[in-house]
Specification:
about 90 residues
Length: about 90
């Protein structure tokens, strides 16, 4: 069963949100519904203007940066044989 929710929002915010939702192929109502469902399910409020990278990718990047600082790098590899040899010895 659906119910109606009345909220007050700044006119420009509503227009900008409606435009962005439309660009994403969504209605403003579906965006608000999805946000409310996520808020209830996660029991937290997530606000972000830009997509974030996953924690696994963050860890991989940190490890690569540490390896680079320590000089633990391979390359440049200039042939498929060099790549195969490097992978065989890893």
């Amino acid at each position: 069963m659906k119910t109606q929710l009345n909220i007050k929002v700044d006119k420009k915010t509503r227009e900008d949100a409606k435009k962005l939702a439309k660009e994403m192929g969504l209605t403003l109502s579906s965006v608000i519904n999805a946000s409310l469902k996520q808020f209830v399910n996660d029991k937290e409020l997530k606000l972000s203007r830009v997509p974030r990278i996953s924690s696994d990718l963050e860890k991989t990047i940190q490890k690569a940066e540490q390896d680079l600082k320590k000089g633990n790098i391979v390359g440049p590899l200039t042939s498929s044989k060099e790549i195969d040899d490097m992978l065989d010895n890893a």
